[in-house]
Amino acid sequence: MSANTTNYIRIERALKKIENKDDYIRFLKFSKNFYKEDFKNQLLIFYQNPEARIIKTFVEWKLYGRIVIKNPHKIYIYKNPKNNNNNKIIDGQVDVNGKEKKQRKEAGIEYIEDEKLRRVCTFDISDTMASRKLKKVLDIKKLVYLDNYDTKKLQKIVQDTCTIVRLSIIELQENNLLPKEYIPENHGNLDEFVYEIITTIYKCSFGYHYENLGENFAESIAFLILDYFNLDTSFCKFNHLKDFNMLDTKTKLAIGCKMQNLVQTFIDFVKEEYNGQIMCA
């Protein structure tokens, strides 16, 4: 695909690519490696290289002591534009030779619903190699995608977190602040218990006026969290994926960004609890 193709076009094609249930699940499983990335970037990375594991720009890889190989697979994503307000050259100014200076245009700028975004080129780690000539400034082992945690301890924290959430749900329902049509049970099966808690709380947050969309939204979050912590995802059926597919691109991105934010918040909370326990041990 041409480098001149806008990322927005890539996003639209990516959304079309995951309309099938199996492809949607593949996208969700892929996204766990990039759970800190914006939903738009998750779509872009998946569309351009579904085998990607860790992506960085050319300059960023050099900080990890790695160089990009020849003819690499380029992956275009969005990053916040640089603030160059103080360096702008305004029309009418002249240089030392008396020639008029023209305002510089920032490269790779795109707009999505008035949001200014900068398109940048990145490369997967598979398109890089270690270089002895480069001094390592950053340790690649500390990249978020290579977390080295005790899975059992993480799962225990997930269980404890969901137990607290369950009690909160019941309290809200008893005070008529949430519908009483469903109260999650305290299952002995950790996978099912986490699934029910996650889907309940996030379906409530989506709103019962959009029940089918809310169910797909909640199941997507549950799948991402379950899969990230190596729990069973088979409870996620995605029977209402078609309702999501019928939405326009703007609405899909809004829902996807909210979903990504909630997943990141949950995962980061569990990790912080884990690190706190390790420090106190």
Keywords:
single chain; about 280 residues; alpha+beta; two-stranded antiparallel ribbon
Commentary on this structure:
- This protein is of the alpha+beta class and 281 residues long.
- It is built from 9 helices and 6 strands.
- The strands form 2 sheets. Strands 1, 3, 4 and 5 form a 4-stranded antiparallel beta sheet that branches. Strands 2-6 form a two-stranded antiparallel sheet.
- Strand 4 and strand 5 form a beta hairpin.
- About 3% of the residues have low confidence.
Overall average pLDDT: 83
Query: What is the number of strand segments?
Result: 6
Helix content: 40-55%
What is the first-to-last residue Cα distance? 52 Å
Structural class: alpha+beta
The ordered H/E elements are: HHHEHEEEEEHHHHH
Helical stretch tally: 9
The largest pleated sheet is described as:
4 strands, antiparallel
Percent strand equals 5-15%
Radius of gyration: 22 Å
Shape: globular
* Poorly predicted regions: 85-92
Compose a concise summary of this entry.
The chain is α+β, with helices and mostly antiparallel strands and 281 residues long. It is built from nine helices and six strands; from the N terminus they run αααβαβββββααααα.
